[in-house]
Amino acid sequence: MSTHIPIYIAQxxxxxxxxxxxxxxxxxxxxxxxxKLTQPNxxxxxxxxxxxxxNKFDLTxxxxxxxxxxxxxxxxxxxxxTIGIWILIHTEYNFMSFLSxxxxxxxxxxxxxxxxxxxxxxxxxxNESFFRHRITHFEFFTLIYLPSFIVLTFIPYxxxxxxxxxxxxxxxxxxxxSAIYLTRYISVFHNILxxxxxxxxxxxxxxxxxxxx
Length: 213
Hints:
Strand content: under 5%
Number of domains: 1
Structural class: mainly alpha
Low-confidence stretches: 54-61
Largest sheet: none
Radius of gyration: 18 Å
Helix content: over 70%
């Protein structure tokens, strides 16, 4: 009976809703519940970190823990990003198309993950961590994507353009905020190198992917 619940939920939404999105929404909701139970202040800390830039990011944010909660938030981001891109690209949904988008999104995520770590290593200030600063963006986007995608999915109207706008705004937010953050610690050349390789290229790749669907 329980295996039919996501399918039933999908039937309540737009006819074109991919059933896999219901499974993703359920997984992310369970992940957030687990995080809330095990680390009650973590989600609030993520939001606060996006509102106020701290001078000593790792020590003041309380987000330096890279345990299970961190892993669940990162997986949730990749899955939600995949759902968003998948809805924009495909009109007929099947597991193989979902898997192909998931592989692409996961690959770009891993490249960025390694790049963030590299750029963080060239910042010499003891208590600064660009890596943790930028990875927290993904956790923040997870909190935005989940309710937004659920609402945009279950309203009885086509809302793909709103999903595209949401993903675009989040990407622009990361680009601007990260550039401002890095300006204080690295040269203009390294900042431009970062923006081109880890922010603009992935964004342009996703735009091309959507436009050539």
